[in-house]
Write a structure and sequence with these properties.
2 copies of one chain form a homodimer.
Chain A: E1 2-11, H1 18-29, E2 35-49, H2 53-68, E3 74-82
Antiparallel strand pairs in A: 1-2, 1-3
Chain lengths: ~80, ~80
């Protein structure tokens, strides 16, 4: 079976996010007020072949840990859906 | 009221994604098979102050169009939740 996967990689809470800070500082001068706590991460979407949803999720978790994230500073949020 | 916003920015379908292609080509040599259609984008999370959810969404849509995405090559997927 094929599953659609969304992996959202965000910096862990407490890790400084200069890209988010830059956006946050720029917004008021561009006319957007009331925006705070901007955090910028990566999102990855892909299809994966696996026997069932649990197997797909296990493969994606391993993929995230070994390859798609830096577990020291980043967290991954994984969503798996049957395609 | 404060709302939590998630903006996922992905390249439009048909726009070449070299970062995704590089991941896809690297995975089999690292022992992960069966992964296809890898697309890499950005994810942004922030808090926004607005009168109600519709106002928050309107502000975020304007923000995406003017500042957070390049509408020629990118699409934004917006999720707004009350914080």
């Amino acid at each position: 079976m094929t599953f659609s996967v969304l992996v959202e990689v965000q910096l862990r809470p407490g890790i400084s996010d200069p890209q988010g800070q830059t956006i946050e500082k720029a917004l008021p001068t561009l006319g957007f007020d009331g925006v705070s706590d901007v955090r910028v991460g990566k999102s990855m979407r892909f299809e994966i072949d696996a026997a069932d949803e649990a197997a797909a999720r296990a493969q994606v978790d391993e993929l995230c840990e070994k390859f798609l994230t830096n577990p020291v500073i980043e967290d991954a949020l994984v969503t798996v859906e049957s395609a």
